[in-house]
Write a structure and sequence with these properties.
A two-stranded antiparallel sheet has the order 1-2. The chain has one domain. The protein is 55% helix and 8% strand. The longest helix has 27 residues. The radius of gyration is 29 Å and the shape is elongated. The protein is built from six helices and two strands; from the N terminus they run αββααααα.
Length: 148
């Protein structure tokens, strides 16, 4: 029976009178897959979460990556951990740039994280023409409710 598993990748199984084929995984395929996943994750972390570069390094098609992501919860968690590690690196680098006095880094942080303090980026478009159209945008707070 063990010899049968190595030479025959499928095996017939009967269930309530119906015969179905069930794929029997070969040990070599599992080892190759494990190695490819490890190679993928290594490059994925080194190349800033670049899926294409990681697939090339692991010698797999991009659709295989998405299949692993869908079917293997451990692989999915490892990819999520790699993404979180990149976010941590970016945040640490941003903070280091702010501490060095980099104005663009400081402005970026304030615009994205301090909106509640009035830091926001707005775009105003003005166009002049002779058509006589004037658009004025104002903000009025909602009227206060009067107690009866």
């Amino acid at each position: 029976m063990a010899k049968d598993k190595q030479t025959n990748p499928t095996k017939n199984r009967s269930k309530k009178g119906k015969t179905t084929k069930v794929l029997v995984k070969r040990r070599e395929e599992q080892e190759r897959t494990t190695t490819a996943k490890a190679r993928f994750l290594s490059v994925f972390m080194a190349k800033g979460n670049n899926i294409s570069e990681s697939c090339k390094a692991a010698a797999i098609a991009r659709c295989v990556y998405y299949e692993w992501l869908h079917k293997d919860p451990d692989f999915k968690q490892a990819v999520a951990d790699a993404k979180e590690a990149l976010y941590d690196f970016a945040e640490t680098s941003l903070i280091a740039a702010m501490q060095d006095g980099n104005f663009q880094a400081i402005k970026f942080f304030l615009i994205n994280k301090a909106k509640q303090r009035g830091w926001q980026e707005t775009t105003t478009i003005q166009q002049e023409h002779s058509g006589g159209i004037e658009i004025i945008h104002t903000y009025e707070p909602p009227p206060k409710k009067v107690k009866e």
